[in-house]
Amino acid sequence: MDFALTDDQQAIRDLFHRFAADEIRPQAQALDRDPRFPEELFAQAGELGFFGMRYPEPEGNGSDLLSYLLAVEELSWGSLAVAAACTMQSLMGTFFVHRFATGEVRQRLVAPALAGQVKGTICMTEPDAGSDLFSMRTSAEERDGTWHLSGQKTWITSAPMADMFTVFARTGDKELSIFLVEQGAPGLSVGRFIEKMGVRASLTSEVSFDNTPATCLLGKVGAGIPALREVLAEIRLMTAAMALGVARAAYEDAVSYSLERAQFGKPIARFQAVQEHIAEMRTKLEAARQLTHWAAWRSTQGLENTDQASMAKLYASEAAMEICDRAARILASYGFANEYPIERYLRDARFTIIGGGTSEILRVNIARGTTRSWQGQA
Ligand SMILES: Cc1cc2nc3c(=O)[nH]c(=O)nc-3n(C[C@H](O)[C@H](O)[C@H](O)COP(=O)(O)OP(=O)(O)OC[C@H]3O[C@@H](n4cnc5c(N)ncnc54)[C@H](O)[C@@H]3O)c2cc1C
Q1: pLDDT digits over 103-142, tens only?
Q2: How confident is the model at residue 193 (pLDDT cuts 50, 70, 90)?
């Protein structure tokens, strides 16, 4: 097995690391305290080609999955909130438009979206439909050749500044379809801004549709779940990479603090109890990274990676929570103070256990995949 990054992958990691260190980190605390969409950083990420990474040339720049995950880890090391805003654009907010839009709509939206000039978002969750997508009530009806949407979505990342909304809606009893709705469409309203404990600069709102005409149907009627499955493993690996980034930030801050902080006449890094935290943090961070990169490698080889991506996301996000918590213990009172970033890491990391499927749902999926494959062998 070859664990080495290629020169191109190394270069991408270095590029996004410099961006995160020089531009994102200096603003991360202020963006958390006084949340606003990170407009300039988003534009810079676009200039670095982040939004086009996972789309083939000539519209995108055709980066491999591991390169993308390395970039996501670096952005998340800079600020998980900035990474959340950028990953919404790079994957979920653009994926279905790129996959299905044709003709004039494609001409008008795809290239600007991959450059970050047209902002996208994805609307699936509803007040009464989270993990259980089939219980969504938003519905679409075709009249005179135009689809009209009615219903309410919630927790929609980047909704307040979105130009295009990819909307999942019911078109039949057990049938979900995907629609493109553009800002300014009649009956579309972006409602209540949701205050959050973490990833605060990634703005989240309710969105409602009142007989709103869609620009177009994306894919075929009923394509919702099959199309979502095409990108779900990648969304999960992306979330795992986000967890790696925030966990690494916490780990590095804690190790460096443990060497500087002295109690009882020696650096706290010399106490066994603190060493245990450091060893657990480092081991779990490395294990999470290997699992994530292995699942990405399987995807690149064309091997099955549905359960592998779920395992990576489950492990990395739970490890991130634990690593941020252990970091906070090492900093003790300074880990509790909001002038240091540790408490922000802890709040932000929590997002990674919800977005892209909760840990509980992932465990159910992994167990189902396991028993299915065992039954297949019998
Ligand atoms: C910061 C943030 C940004 C988000 N951005 C978006 C976005 O842009 N677009 C969008 O559509 N959504 C978005 N979401 C919503 C997110 O996808 C949902 O929160 C997620 O799918 C979980 O749904 P829920 O919160 O309604 O929880 P529920 O589904 O109600 O789950 C509640 C609890 O029950 C458990 N549970 C549910 N079903 C099962 C089961 N079958 N087996 C075992 N346990 C189960 C869950 O794991 C959880 O612990 C965002 C959420 C957050 C926090």
Answers
A1: 999 999 999 999 999 999 999 999 999 999 999 999 999 9
A2: confident
In 3D space, the residue among 200, 237, 258, 192 whose CA is nearest the CA of residue 357 turns out to be 237
Please tell me if the CB atom of residue 133 comes closer than 6 angstroms to any atom of ligand 1.
no
What is the rounded distance in angstroms from the CA atom of residue 180 to the CA atom of residue 172?
A: 18
> Quick check: CB of 358 below 6 Å from ligand 1?
yes
What is the CATH classification number for the domain harbouring 259?
1.20.140.10
Residues 105 and 124 in one domain: no
Same structural domain for residues 206 and 340? no
Count the domains in the chain: 3
Collapsing DSSP to helix, strand or coil, 212 comes out as strand
* 168/130 same-domain check: yes
Q: Which residues span the domain enclosing 274?
A: 225-373
DSSP string, 89-155: IIIIHHHHHHHH--HHHHHHHHHHHHHTSS-EEEE--BTTBSS-GGG---EEEEETTEEEEEEEEEE
Mutate which of 125, 138, 165, 179 for ligand 1? The one with the most ligand atoms within 8 Å of its CB, which is: 125
For 209-266, write each residue's pLDDT tens digit.
Answer: 999 999 999 999 999 999 999 999 999 999 999 999 999 999 999 999 999 999 999 9
User: Would residue 378 count as lying in a domain?
Assistant: no
The pTM of the full predicted model, rounded to 2 decimals, is 0.97
Helices (H), the chain: 7-19, 25-33, 39-47, 65-78, 80-87, 93-100, 103-115, 224-260, 272-300, 306-331, 333-336, 342-352, 359-377
Please give the Cα distance from 124 to 112 (Å, whole number). Answer: 23
* pLDDT tens sequence across 268-307: 999 999 999 999 999 999 999 999 999 999 999 999 999 9
